[in-house]
Amino acid sequence: MQQLANLSVHSSLPTRAIEVSQLSHVYNGIHGEVLALEDISLQVESGKFTVIVGPSGCGKTSLLMMMAGLRSQTSGELLCHGAPIPQPDPNRVGVVFQEASLFPWLTAAQNVEFPLSLRADPKVARRQRALQMLSLVGLDGFADRFPHELSGGMKQRVSIARGLVQDPPVLLMDEPFAALDEQTRMTMGHELLRIWATTSKTVVFVTHSLTEAVYLADEVLVMSARPGRIIDRIAIDLPRPRTYEMMASDKFGGLRERIWQQIRSQH
């Protein structure tokens, strides 16, 4: 894994990767304006793994898309490493969506290379970088496979590699393992922690799985039912590296139960 030595650690970045202050969002629904997010304030520290959970429809994905510069808030302030992000900026933020959304006519390596081709990086350099990222996500030997030749878990690995290829300090993930079976999902979560530890990225991860939230996170942000607000911020003080055995511990169960009670109270 010598090739991974060239990954940057972003050690000179500000302490806070994401700062949100009094953010609210209103959208036009069928029956008029709908208040989707209300007075959200939060901070995500650089290098931390933060998970957002909450009831369906509470605005988790909308908030994540605002962090990505893919959607604008109605009011309030959102900063990424000290500056607004009014539009997508892959040099600051990478995004991994729920569906892998790979181009079926491109190989795994070509899919990973695609963002680099948009900025006209030299062909040899972008191929080398794509192979490096595929190695990082455990797909050595699969560079020339097309999406239809890959399993669901492999496709998501390619998607993660594509999100990492421009080396953004922040990686946003919107339920990336939701479509996978439970066994693959647990394996992918464990692999994601390995990648995170290797790259020192800041990760903001949206999920509906409370077990996944506790297993992955440094902290969990719990959102209320619409209009979405932050109603709890829970530090997950389990040791790292995380192990599957931790899931059976009383401490793990207590943390999961606290999150569940917060969400349950919103129904």
- End-to-end separation in angstroms reads 48 Å
SSE topology string: EEEHEEEHHHEHEHEEH
In total, how many beta strands? 10
The biggest beta sheet is recorded as: 6 strands, mixed
CATH homologous group name of the largest domain: P-loop containing nucleotide triphosphate hydrolases
Strand order of the largest sheet: 6-7-8-3-9-10
Please bin the fraction of helical residues: 25-40%
Q: Can you give the mean pLDDT?
A: 92
Structural class designation:
alpha/beta
CATH architecture assignment of the largest domain: 3-Layer(aba) Sandwich
Shape designation: globular
How many structural domains?
Answer: 2
The portion of residues forming beta strands comes to 15-25%
Q: Give the count of helical stretches.
A: 7
Q: What fold name stands as the CATH topology of the largest domain?
A: Rossmann fold
CATH class of the largest domain: Alpha Beta
Specify Rg, calculated over alpha carbons.
Answer: 18 Å
Low-pLDDT stretches: 1-10
